[in-house]
Amino acid sequence: xxxxxxxxxxxxxxxxxxxxxxxxxxxxxxxxxxxxxxxxxxxxxxxxxxxxxxxxxxxxxxxxxxxxxxxxxxxxxxxxxxxxxxxxxxxxxxxxxxxxxxxxxxxxxxxxxxxxxxxxxxxxxxxxxxxxxxxxxxxxxxxxxxxxxxxxxxxxxxxxxxxxxxxxxxxxxxxxxxxxxxxxxxxxxxxxxxxxxxxxxxxxxxxxxxxxx
Length: 213
Hints:
Elements: E1 11-18, H1 24-33, E2 45-54, E3 57-66, H2 76-82, E4 85-91, H3 95-112, E5 120-125, H4 137-147, E6 150-153, H5 162-190
Parallel strand pairs: 1-3, 1-4, 4-5, 5-6
Antiparallel strand pairs: 2-3
């Protein structure tokens, strides 16, 4: 008789965010299928599922690849509310795409109603086009400090830092969830009359940043 106590793999809802043409779909396809998709129609919404082993622990990744174009902005709050982690992508050859990252990050904070949200990886794509670079690595690092999130650069074409980016956001979600559980447990132990503890990400409402991991 089959066992009724099969171990459940924890699921992580992740969302790809960034302007149109920055390579969100190419990054996702490279992670999912280990291939570089050259000709890809603009995305409205695609969803993918993949089991990954992160730090020797299995995780089910449910990835939503979203449209970056402004006309699809009203669709995004639904994805953002349920998502646990975000890959915030820009194109290192496009100053405009780097500037647009701020509005996507602000949408995350507004939807989550938090001052900071650490389960984010800021990702500068297309390092294979370094001769056309318009955004310095140091600028990406500085923006990640303001966002209080992790940062790396990648190449969807050559699969550079692709697995690392997804694994990093899973780690960030795990850390965030663990810290939230500890805070709630401490509140329960303190009792109703105990001192109120700030929850992770809510210490400063709408201000401040975190270090790059």
